[in-house]
Amino acid sequence: MKTDAGLCPRCKSPQVVGIAQSIENPTSIMKCAACGHVWTPGAISAQPVRARLTPREAEVVSLIAAGKTNKDVAIALGLRENTVRNYLVRIFEKLGASSRLQVAMHAARDAATSRNEAIHDVMSHLTGSAA
Predict the structure, then answer these.
(1) Taking CA 59 as the corner, what is the angle to CA 47 and CA 98, rounded to the nearest 5 degrees?
(2) What is the pLDDT of residue 74?
(3) What is the pLDDT, as a whole number, of residue 88?
């Protein structure tokens, strides 16, 4: 299966192919034909989504995660559909994603992590205050 998965995170070569995908694990395993590096898209960075994207790209991601089409995103942000497509290309590359679903999953994981960190901070504060 050949896919356009952006650039190799190691050597930045565009010669990237998908080498495995299953129903149980819909994330492809990617391999760089130039250097042989193998990785799973989305595992490229543990850095939060919001830290890897521009504010405008983050807006696009939040609308995509809400199930909006390119046309819906364009209308909501006052952009042309082609501009939204260009944003998505850059977002896919930055997140190591190969589908809108993977972008939405990144956003959901990031939101859950943020909520968990906030809960931890509150609990730490309460525990520290009570002692």
Answers:
(1) 60
(2) 97
(3) 94
Select from 56, 67, 58 the least CA-distant residue to 111. 58
Q: Are residues 30 and 63 in the same domain?
A: no
d(CA 17, CA 1): 7
Q: Which residues of 34-54 are buried (b: 16+ CB within 10 A; e: fewer)?
A: eeeeebebbebeeeebeebbe
What is the residue range of 106's domain? 46-130
Q: How far apart are the first and last CA of the chain?
A: 58
The widest CA-to-CA distance across the chain, in whole angstroms, is 58
Give per-residue pLDDT as tens, 5-38.
467 777 777 766 665 554 444 556 677 777 777 7
Does residue 25 sit in the same domain as residue 68? Answer: no
Supply the CATH number for residue 10's domain: 2.20.25
Which helix (H) or strand (E) element contains residue 68? Answer: none
Residue 10 pLDDT: 72
pTM here is 0.55
